[in-house]
Design goal:
alpha+beta; extended; 354 residues; 11 strands; five-stranded antiparallel sheet; four-stranded antiparallel sheet
Length: 354
């Protein structure tokens, strides 16, 4: 049975006379004094200062080298070819020479970088079919409407993979050659597999069912490649059959959209089991050979090769150490102001008396 209401009137909605509802529970009310607050400010300032210096030194010891090859070296001709649709599929290769000023010790990661490419636009990010990317036959032949206008070609043949994200996939091929002092030329060996996230590779992306008698090419029959691709999805990697289709590492890396217009994505990892690369990437002269396919002139962008070390802190990023140093300075300024006010006014505010 419910509790009987005690009549009507202005006190009808008054809370019960309990310690909880009347806020009479025991509580701790700290007494903030200058002797406790000011040392806390100075200690926090020192902690942020030490963290900022430590992280700054860590970042300084993380080497990174960027090689912009948009129109560098012999790539200007390829850049001009990619300006126009009529010459967009004309094969073009170029080379760019660069120097590594100091040895990159340990594991070295190679990225391709794009500037002014906005992968974070809402309609661009929605232009994909995740059900198609897990190999569902229904979506393979009938892409969702979000992929439009990259869902079908003129004769209603479905595109696989569909959507603007897949259609704009980065498709330059990069080869780095090491030129030691003896005049020889050694190709820098890279691991090109295992560069995608585990969950992406094994959960979010899967090929349509195929076996020894039913090949991957047959599984994609009735579909066509994206408009700006030069190869079909089942022949992206001509060196490893198991790296084709929707589980291609380069495709998976590209399909994870970047948050900012200037970004880099993993292209390969240095294979340290060969030649002069056992201790890392040696200093010296290098040549970058590019199979130039990706156009950047329509969005006024730039392309670059990024070579970087990765430590426990990640790559070379100065944001966090600078943030700690700035925070330390701000806290110190506030602490000095509070100390000055405390000394001037006095412990009990006696200097405020008229």
């Amino acid at each position: 049975m419910g509790k009987k209401q005690a009549g009507t009137g202005p006190l009808l909605r008054r809370p019960d006379n309990s310690a909880f509802k009347q806020q009479r529970l025991p509580a701790w009310s700290p007494s903030l004094t200058a002797q406790t607050v000011l040392p806390t400010f100075y200690i926090l300032s020192l902690v942020c200062l030490f963290l900022g210096i430590w992280l700054f030194i860590t970042v300084e010891n993380t080497y990174e080298l960027k090689v912009d090859y948009t129109i560098a070296g012999t790539c200007e001709r390829c850049f001009d070819l990619r300006k126009h649709a009529i010459t967009s599929r004309t094969a073009c290769t170029c080379t760019v020479s660069f120097q590594v000023p100091k040895t990159f010790p340990g594991d070295v990661f190679f990225y391709y970088g794009l500037r002014n490419f906005h992968q974070n636009l809402r309609r661009y990010m929605d232009s994909r079919d995740d059900a198609q990317m897990v190999g569902r036959k229904n979506n393979l032949k009938a892409p969702i409407s979000y992929c439009a206008p990259f869902d079908y070609v003129a004769n209603r043949v479905p595109i696989a993979p569909c959507g603007a994200v897949a259609n704009s996939m980065f498709n330059d091929s990069l080869t780095v050659m090491y030129n030691p002092a003896d005049g020889s030329e050694i190709q820098v060996p890279l691991y090109r597999k295992g560069i995608a996230w585990y969950t992406d590779k094994n959960v979010k992306f899967r090929n349509p069912p195929a076996n020894d008698t039913f090949t991957l090419q047959q599984a994609f029959e009735g579909t066509t490649r994206p408009l700006y691709w030069q190869r079909s999805v089942y022949e992206l990697d001509d060196t490893d059959f198991n790296n084709n289709g929707f589980i291609n590492d380069d495709l998976i890396v590209w399909m994870r959209e970047a948050a900012f217009p200037n970004f880099k994505k993993l292209y390969g990892v240095l294979n340290r089991a060969q030649g002069p690369f056992t201790d890392g990437l040696p200093a010296g002269n290098y040549t970058l050979s590019i199979n130039y396919n990706f156009p950047v002139e329509p969005f006024r962008g730039r392309k670059e090769l990024v070579i970087s070390m990765v430590t426990w802190f990640g790559g070379q990023n100065y944001f966090l150490p600078i943030a700690y140093l700035v925070t330390s300075g701000l806290i110190l300024v506030v602490a000095v102001i509070l100390t000055t006010v405390y000394v001037k006014v006095g412990k009990k505010g006696k200097n405020m008396e008229e």
